[in-house]
Amino acid sequence: MIVGFVLNYFNYNLFHRDVIVSIFFGLAMGGIYGIYTLRLEYLQERMKFLEELAEKNQQLQATTRHLAISEERNRMGRELHDSISQGVQGLIFALHSLRHELKDPPERVANILHHLEATARSTLDELRALIEELKPSQLVEEGLTASIQATCELLSQRQAIPVDVNITLPAPLSPEIEMTIYRIVQEALANIEKHAHAQQVMISITETAGQVLLTVKDDGRGFTVPQAAPGHGLRNMRQRAEEAGGSFEVLSKPGHGTTIKVILPPKD
Questions:
Q1: For the chain (length 268 residues), average pLDDT per consecutive 10?
Q2: Domains defined for the chain, CATH in brackets
Q3: Is the N or the C terminus of the chain less surrounded, counting Cβ atoms within 10 Å?
């Protein structure tokens, strides 16, 4: 009987010891798991923080680059205006004075003077266009929509034709893409004014499939695209679109107007 009691007591203690060991083991594993979970969450938060920091750093670098480009453009515009442009104007004045000093110049001399004056005036016009291109535009101060509407209103007043503008963009565009769109619209309207003899113009800027679609359409006289020699206007528009990572297409037929389609990424 005593032996049985001793055996039962011994088995009881072994059972409780196993239970206690199991409890401590479970607590230990739970603690380890808890520490692992906390550590994992901490690492995930750190990774998220680093990703956000990297994104903000990229935005800062892009902003700095845009500012540097803008400042350099302003500096070049000032230098062109203050030095080269004024020098060409002086040259034109000198040629004009020389023509009056030569009372009755030989025909060859007169032709040379005329050619020099014409070349100087053409150069001055190109310089003025370049300065206009470089200087801060209405786009910077008023934004894309207001700038395009103002440009279209001027064309409408000069040509006495309606110009419909539809701009629906769900998100802001990068400064480079906005400038590309603005300059292409300016160039397209200049072409319409010079060549199209249009009665109506439509401009649309929308976002489709994650890209920006610019359409400029007129009901003018049109032309045969494959046979048309690419002028400076079309070439400039195509070059601007491709430099911004986009595409450029011209659709036109004689008597059926012209449509220009430009597809651009929303950001550069």
A1: 47 54 65 72 74 67 56 61 70 78 79 83 76 63 87 90 92 86 91 91 93 96 74 83 93 93 86
A2: 1-136 (no CATH), 139-268 (3.30.565.10)
A3: N
